[in-house]
Automatic annotation (TrEMBL):
InterPro entries: Aminotransferase_I/II_large (IPR004839), Class-I_PLP-dep_aminotransf (IPR050859), PyrdxlP-dep_Trfase (IPR015424), PyrdxlP-dep_Trfase_major (IPR015421). This is aromatic-amino-acid transaminase. It holds the Pfam family Aminotran_1_2. Its main location: cytoplasm. It comes from Kluyveromyces marxianus (strain DMKU3-1042 / BCC 29191 / NBRC 104275). Its EC number is 2.6.1.57. The lineage of its organism: Eukaryota, Fungi, Dikarya, Ascomycota, Saccharomycotina. Residues 104-447 form the Aminotransferase class I/classII large domain. GO terms for biological process: aromatic amino acid family catabolic process; lysine biosynthetic process via aminoadipic acid; tyrosine biosynthetic process.
């Protein structure tokens, strides 16, 4: 199949982006590695004065026969040994990033050894539909989202977001004076017909939203996941109304089978080969993008460790150039220690070993999800106004509660679901467990207290929800926490056991 090239979306750039020029000093950094040139042009300290001469780390070795949670024994049969030196040895070429380079200025796009790994990884997983795409390192998806807002949005611009969204992403937009317009969700994520209705009815002459921000897989906070059919519909709407889709995908590889309530009917999913695993993954927005109107944000936070502070963006080369120019003046580059460790580990695991790790994660999260949902059914009141929502991806579960069923809804709580929500939260805290009120994630379509023209605010509902995670604690501790949450609901709603 002949691939096309990305569309020019520069007309959607912010004034800041249009006014930004390349850093003159950054344009000469590639001369630093030229052995025939005496480089006196930049404030780069000599690596001789870096106090670290070597770095050694150990990790489990693929195929992780003892499970991804098993500690390596130190034996060569199950331990991956990584030893990185200040200067590159010939045997390390293409595998390791020497500390003399990783700890130096430069490579704002990411060190070649680690970026090649993730570009090859991306090509294994996602079927790109246009030629001029690229990859750029980030310090994680939260930082990448903040950069995205700066690249595309001026104060007063509008963007679309799921009606309940990651609170830090909401705060980042609000801080930049961007109006967030909530798109209705159901248990399967964004409802395409509702999204189209919002935009078809937008007031004439009022600029439409530039971006749609979405967490398509294991959505935070609702745990919902978009099907491929819905993604295709949403992409069609993006073309029709000319906005960029930003898919924030830290949970992409935490996909799992549907929850089966009867434990005897559960079958542990196994794969005869890696292609079977890859084919089981829901297709991404970026894999259907023919115009370069999708920006995909990936991260190691949920598959290796949050403290790596490492991620990457996939998009058209022209758009990623704007990220690079911004990062050259902000983060400079992701941490050097991180890049050396990641490159040293993953290049020894190889692409096949990394897939083994991701398959192991799927197994572990499925086991924890099932245990969690089982415990919710066991400990929460069995009434028709409390609903447990088992996710098919990610690390969050939600519990829907019809606040109007509270015996004091119309009296003490004045028919206000938010007051019931706060009462439940306070009761749970007093019982020794913390679950997060859904209202903390609600997207309010206001800027300076004003509703955007042409936007119809979704109707309020008496149904509230709480978000919890099955990722953060051991199984036994999770069960105790859910038991306490159940006790709080029994007490608050005055339900007899």
């Amino acid at each position: 199949m002949t691939q096309g090239v990305a569309k020019d979306f520069s007309y959607l750039y912010s004034d800041e982006t249009k006014g930004r020029t390349p850093s003159q000093l950054k344009t000469i950094i590639h001369y630093f590695s030229d052995p025939n040139l005496i480089f006196l042009g930049g404030g780069l300290p000599m690596s001789d004065y870096f106090p670290w001469d070597n770095l050694s780390v150990e990790s489990p070795l693929p195929p992780f026969k003892n499970g991804i949670g098993a500690k390596p024994s130190g034996e060569s049969s199950d331990t991956c040994h990584v030893s990185i030196t200040k200067d590159l040895k010939e045997s390390q070429a293409g595998i390791d990033i020497p500390l003399a380079r990783s700890l130096q200025y430069g490579h704002s796009k990411g060190q070649p050894e680690v970026m090649k790994f993730f570009k090859d990884h991306h090509e294994m997983i996602h079927d790109m539909q246009y030629e001029d795409w690229d990859i750029c390192a980030t310090v994680g998806n939260t930082g990448a989202w903040e950069s995205t807002l700066r690249i595309f949005c001026n104060r007063g611009d509008s963007i679309l977001a799921e009606e309940f969204a990651f609170s830090s992403s909401i705060s980042a937009a609000e801080a930049q004076g961007v109006t967030l317009c909530p798109v209705p969700l159901d248990e399967h994520g964004i409802i395409p017909s509702k999204l189209e209705e919002v935009l078809d009815n937008w007031a004439a002459g009022v600029p439409k939203p530039k971006l749609l921000y979405t967490v398509p897989t294991g959505q935070n906070p609702t745990g919902s996941s978009l099907s491929f059919d819905r993604k295709k519909e949403i992409y069609r709407i993006a073309q029709k109304h000319d906005f960029i889709i930003v898919e924030d995908e830290p949970y992409y590889f935490l996909q799992m089978e549907k929850y089966e309530k009867d434990p005897s009917k559960r079958v542990e999913k196994s794969y005869s080969n890696h292609k079977e695993f890859i084919d089981s993954l829901e297709k991404s927005f970026v894999s259907i993008d023919v115009e370069g109107r999708v920006i995909r944000m990936d991260s190691l936070s949920k598959v290796l460790a949050p403290g790596t502070r490492f991620g990457w963006i996939i998009g058209s080369k022209d758009i990623l150039l704007q990220y690079l120019r911004l990062q050259e003046m902000t983060i400079q580059a992701p941490g050097g220690f991180t890049q050396s460790i990641i490159a040293g580990t993953l290049n020894r695991w190889g692409q096949e070993g990394y897939i083994d790790w991701l398959i192991g994660l799927r197994h572990e999260y499925t086991k924890k999800r099932d245990y969690c949902i089982d415990a919710l059914h066991k400990y929460l009141p069995n009434v028709d106004f409390i609903t447990v929502n088992p996710p098919i991806a990610g690390m969050f579960f939600t519990v829907d509660i019809d606040a109007s069923k509270h015996p004091e809804f119309t009296t003490t709580y004045k028919s206000d679901p938010k007051l019931v929500e706060k009462a439940i939260f306070d009761k749970a805290i007093a019982s020794g467990v913390l679950v997060v009120p859904g209202n903390w994630f609600k997207v309010e379509s206001l800027t300076n207290g004003k509703q955007p023209e042409g936007f119809v605010k979704p109707a309020e509902s008496s149904v509230i929800f709480f978000r919890g995670t099955y990722a953060a604690v051991p199984l036994e501790k999770m069960a105790e926490g859910l038991h306490r949450f159940g006790d709080s609901l029994y007490e608050e709603f005055q339900i007899s056991r």
